[in-house]
């Protein structure tokens, strides 16, 4: 039986949805994009051009929900299906778009560069419980105008897994789409086997910028899945109560669904988000707060109630080092998310309020993901009934170490972590160097990167992507792309 977690009663979910619908009908949503406003007007929204507000009637929301798909798949660069976002299936992906990297050698956060990003991509390729790549941090050695596409380029060049990505500028989309087409071979092949998900973020409260609303439209029409990342902040840019913030999150996400489905009915998307509690003592947005994690699980219940696949930024930490706080916040979030059946769990590797990635933390989080995936597999009988013969063997032999029952079920019944997690006796731990968690994690980072094998990407695809990126670099004033190898 799969264990499950729920925070909301059905009646509460329906009341939240009703309140969110009323907000969209009475107050509407502010949209700074003429194309999006025209699209909504054609769909039946009431548009106030002076205030850039669109009021969405109930029937428009219902039509959008009726065409939004209840599940979809992602595929790696070879075309193999890796994800099926459906039901309570769970997939982990690193958190995205950090501006700092935690340097293991110095212990300091610093700006990452191209070689750091390549190390990250090689590492993710070797982590079995991290199902997708993400454009995890921003390489600071290229111009800002190409940072969106450059992260995706490096991800596709050095890894096979699908990529969770996004664009801070609407102008980045065309090149990012073309990079994916270079891998797939055609626009039609990309539509048939999506390679990426784009994160698109409304601005709290009830607002879409020109860039993010354009991303919604462009992705929908290109057949590229999106994840809606509404970010209400409890008590600051949203009501202080969890239910109040859920109402706002629901309204903002529904508005995104409407725009996506008007642009291209049937366009795939994840009902996601990155809300946070607001800690008034420090003026911070703690992603590791239990209230943040509760909101994440609860809004995903709302998404499931609507029949939609789900996503959340959860399973990360606000700590500044790979320490006990990092472990407890990440493990608690990942456990709750898996029990809630969140389809795409974004967060592994992240520290410091989503602003920092750590390669060492990522390998630890890979083990947390493995543990939680074992947990949600549940407990099932495995030749346990009748029990008498097995206990007769135990009494006869004095142990069951080499029993046929043990050999058949040991690997499937028990999850054995890698060397990052210490399960040795103290004497063996001392004999092997008495390494700390951080030291073991760093060793594992180095081992995985050193054993990396290039992805099975056609040479002509890699060459086409590189030509495109070089042209973009020259357009922005760079003579050549940064060196990728030492």
From TrEMBL:
Keywords linked to the UniProt accession: Methyltransferase, Transferase
BP GO terms, sorted: methanogenesis; methylation
Cross-referenced Pfam families: MTTB
GO terms of molecular function: methyltransferase activity
Family in the record: Belongs to the trimethylamine methyltransferase family.
Designated name of the protein: Trimethylamine methyltransferase family protein
């Amino acid at each position: 039986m799969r264990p499950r977690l729920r925070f909301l009663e059905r009646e509460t979910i329906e009341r939240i949805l009703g309140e969110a619908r009323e907000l969209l009908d009475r107050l509407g949503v502010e949209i700074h994009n003429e194309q999006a406003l025209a699209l909504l007007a054609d769909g039946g929204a009431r548009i106030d051009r002076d205030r850039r507000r669109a009021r969405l009637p109930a029937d428009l929301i219902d039509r959008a929900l009726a065409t939004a798909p209840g599940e979809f798949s992602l595929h790696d660069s070879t075309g193999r299906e890796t994800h099926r976002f459906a039901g309570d299936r769970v997939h982990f992906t690193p958190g995205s778009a950090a501006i700092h990297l935690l340097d293991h050698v110095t212990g300091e956060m610093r700006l990452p560069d191209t070689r750091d990003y390549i190390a990250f991509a090689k590492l993710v390729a070797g982590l079995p419980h991290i199902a997708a790549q993400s454009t995890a941090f921003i390489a600071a050695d290229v111009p800002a105008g190409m940072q969106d596409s450059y992260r995706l380029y490096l991800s596709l060049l050095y890894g096979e897994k699908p990529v969770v990505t996004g664009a801070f500028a609407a102008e980045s989309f065309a090149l990012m789409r073309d990079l994916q087409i270079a891998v797939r071979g055609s626009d039609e092949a990309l539509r048939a086997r999506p390679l990426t998900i784009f994160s698109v973020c409304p601005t709290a409260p009830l607002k879409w910028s020109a860039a993010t609303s354009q991303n919604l439209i462009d992705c929908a029409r290109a057949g590229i899945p999106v994840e809606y990342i509404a970010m209400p902040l409890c008590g600051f840019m949203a009501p202080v109560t969890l239910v109040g913030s859920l109402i706002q999150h629901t309204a903002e996400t529904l508005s995104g669904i409407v725009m996506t489905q008007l642009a291209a009915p049937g366009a795939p998307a994840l009902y996601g988000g990155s809300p946070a509690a607001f800690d008034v003592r420090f003026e911070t947005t703690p992603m590791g707060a239990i209230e943040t994690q509760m909101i994440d699980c609860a809004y995903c219940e709302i998404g499931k109630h609507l029949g939609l696949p789900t996503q959340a930024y959860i399973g990360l930490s606000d700590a500044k080092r790979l320490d006990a706080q990092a472990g407890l916040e990440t493990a608690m979030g990942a456990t709750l998310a898996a029990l809630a059946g969140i389809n795409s769990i974004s967060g592994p590797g992240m520290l410091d309020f989503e602003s920092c990635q750590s390669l060492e933390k990522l390998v630890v989080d890979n083990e947390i993901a493995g543990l939680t995936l074992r947990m949600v597999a549940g407990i099932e009988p495995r030749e346990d009934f009748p029990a008498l013969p097995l206990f007769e063997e135990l009494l006869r032999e004095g142990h069951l170490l080499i029993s046929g029952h043990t050999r058949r079920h040991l690997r499937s019944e028990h999850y054995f972590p890698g060397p990052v997690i210490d399960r040795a006796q103290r004497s063996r731990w001392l004999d092997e160097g008495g390494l700390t968690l951080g030291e073991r994690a760093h060793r594992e980072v180095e081992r995985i990167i050193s054993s990396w094998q290039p992805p099975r990407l056609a040479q002509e695809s890699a060459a086409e992507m590189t030509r495109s990126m070089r042209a973009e670099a020259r357009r922005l004033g760079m003579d050549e792309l940064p060196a990728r190898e030492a």
